[in-house]
Amino acid sequence: MHELSIACNLVEIAAGAAGNVRVQAVHVRLGALSGVVPEALLFSYDLAAAGTPLEGSRLIIEALPVIVHCPACDHTTTLDSIQAFRCAHCGAPTADIRQGKELDIVALEVADEQPAYP
């Protein structure tokens, strides 16, 4: 389960960015083609955060669909399914992925005046 190593990296990055401020939530964007199972990442996050300044914080995942650009008709569309990489406008196959591979921390929610370390 590689989600545990990803969760450990998320905790490390978020803790470094927060400094001595208590983190309440970590917001991530997760693309449908990222290869990460959201439920496994949520479970792993709690394990990874245990005993760290992020213990008790929440992981909030924004699921991103796959968006492709069609060279045949020059339209950008959202895929209905990751099983068929075809333009929703003209039906032509396309491999020009514009969104869907992301795994990004986009925000931290922090507590006002609560240091992570006493």
Task: Please give a structural write-up.
The structure is a single chain. The chain is an alpha+beta fold and 118 residues long. The protein has a single domain, classed as 2-Layer Sandwich (hypothetical protein PF0899 fold), CATH 3.30.2320.80. The protein has two helices and six strands. The strands form two sheets. A three-stranded mixed beta sheet has the order 2-1-6, covered by helices on one side. Strands 4-3-5 form a three-stranded antiparallel beta sheet, with no helix packed on it. A hairpin with a 6-residue loop joins strand 3 (67-69) and strand 4 (76-78). It is elongated and about 50 Å long. The two termini are 34 Å apart.
Task: Tally the structural domains.
Answer: 1
Mean pLDDT across all amino acids:
92
Percent helix:
10-25%
- The secondary structure category is alpha+beta
* Beta-strand content: 25-35%
Shape descriptor reads: elongated
Say what the CATH topology is: hypothetical protein PF0899 fold
Q: Unreliable runs, pLDDT <50, ≥5 residues?
A: none
Output the number of helix runs: 2
Number of strands: 6
Radius of gyration: 18 Å
Q: Tell me the name of the CATH class.
A: Alpha Beta
What string gives the helices and strands in order? HEHEEEEE
